[in-house]
Structure prediction request, 165 residues.
Amino acid sequence: MIRLLILASSILLGLGLVAPTMTIYPKAGNFSWLVELVDPESVLPVTYSIVGIIAELASINDWFLVFVLSIFSIFFPIIKLYLFWVVSFSSQNSKLINAYSIVSRLGKFSMAEVFVLSLALISLKTLPGGTEVNLNWGCYVYFLAVVLSIATSLKINISISEFVQ
Prediction:
């Protein structure tokens, strides 16, 4: 059961990172018609995935956000799932407990990736001129991957508790 949860979470994470996460509908308030006349491409909707957002931030040299989003949205979840795999395939008692202790320490950050994504969405929604941001299915897939990861951590915790006793 644990490996099935890890597999599902891994697949959903991979899909959630590259699937359409949000679409931005830029507007310029009362001057939208003028902006559309002068530069029609600037008011076209743009859809991003999580990886696409990070790539866009890199293209404008916003390295702090690239670093934060990469760590909490990509690398941390991948490392956590890798450690879950290690724990699920461990046959040695001490190795299992040591790997789980690392995973349980990392569990404190289990919602950090969702928090970082929500901060990005909130900052986009507060853009001036009536700009709209709509969530796409990739955001929900990514969120489901995080929820399954939390469920996996709880299931591993229960298994370890039963094993130790």
The first helix runs from residue 2 to 18. The chain has a mean pLDDT of 79. DSSP finds seven helices and three strands in the chain.
